[in-house]
Design goal:
Blueprint (H helix, E strand, L loop, with lengths): L1 E3 L1 H9 L4 E5 L4 E5 L5 E5 L18 H7 L4 H4 L5 E5 L19 E2 L2 E2 L7 H29 L2 E9 L11 E4 L5 H16 L11 E3 L8 H9 L3 E9 L3 E2 L4 E2 L1 H26 L2
Parallel strand pairs: 1-2, 4-5, 4-8, 8-11, 9-10
Antiparallel strand pairs: 2-3, 3-5, 6-7, 9-11, 12-13
Helix pairs in contact: 1-4, 5-7
């Protein structure tokens, strides 16, 4: 993996080079093993938290981890194109617009002892902006090359905080073109429902049950590109104990192994159906 400037990453995309890179400020990674019509993203995978913010942060490291999406990058690691955040959403949230990306409160609790200075905020927002410059270049390239594209926007959520039964998988689709892509959405929902998990964890999948797909990453791509479907795909955190802070690597491995076949199969059917 190379450490590259934003300009160098965009240049490589424009030239259709294959590469693995980390942004020169270590805020996100991008790997392109092949130029295909689909990409994976894990914008909330990151756990890094700038050290100059530590003393001012009220939330504990565990509280930050609890609201992040650990292992979502590893679940899609085998796919040819993967962009993933390295920084915690508590520093800046890639799935929120720039005006709301730097939290003052987080999940009902004040985040900072003292309000962040403009300099501190801008340091975070610069990273947010750079990620989206690269995301724009990437989707531009895929649409130009293939005519259309599909992005699997991977997230996880804390299922134990809900006071009702919630699905293992949730697809948020309220901000995509359901008339055009409804069959593709349903096909993905059905495929996810067929997953086999260790320990008799059941696999259920619903659309707009726990979340509706209101994230900025999905909206940014959908509003800027006419022929790219973003599937906001949330897995309940059945792959860890969200209260005891314990990961279950065998569950993560099972998800990764099944996505290795199911995801490109779905992407292929999407492409065959919609290509002109």
């Amino acid at each position: 993996m190379e450490r590259l400037s934003i300009a160098a990453i965009i240049s490589k995309i424009n030239n259709e080079e294959l590469f693995h890179a980390v942004a020169d400020d270590y805020s996100f990674t991008l790997k392109i093993d092949d130029y295909v019509h689909y990409a994976c993203a894990a914008v909330h995978d990151g756990h890094q938290f700038r050290k100059d913010l530590w003393d001012n942060c009220i939330h504990t490291e565990y509280e930050r981890w609890y609201e992040e999406d650990p292992e979502t990058k590893n679940m899609v690691m085998s796919h040819p194109i993967l962009i993933a955040g390295c920084d915690s959403r508590f520093e800046y949230d890639l799935n929120r617009d720039p005006e709301n990306a730097v939290f003052e409160t987080a999940w009902g609790k004040q985040l900072w002892h003292e309000p962040l200075s403009k300099v501190e905020k801008n340091k975070s927002l610069d990273k947010h902006a750079n990620f989206y410059k690269v995301a724009h270049a990437l989707v531009s390239k895929l649409e130009a090359k293939f005519g259309l594209a599909i992005v699997y926007d991977m997230h996880s959520y804390n299922w134990q905080r809900w006071d009702r039964e919630v699905p293992t998988w949730n697809l948020g689709t309220s901000n995509v073109d359901n008339d055009r892509f409804g069959d593709d959405i349903e096909a993905w929902r059905k495929s996810l429902s067929e997953f086999k998990f260790p320990h008799d964890i059941k696999s259920t999948s619903k659309i707009n049950d726990t979340f509706q797909g209101n994230g900025y990453f999905l909206k940014f791509i959908t509003q800027n590109f006419q022929n790219t479907l973003v599937l906001a795909t949330e897995i309940a955190k059945v792959y860890c104990d969200e209260y005891d802070y314990v990961m279950y690597p065998e569950v993560v491995a099972a998800v990764e192994a099944q996505l290795k076949t199911r995801l490109p199969e779905h992407a292929s059917n999407f492409y065959k159906k919609h290509k002109k």
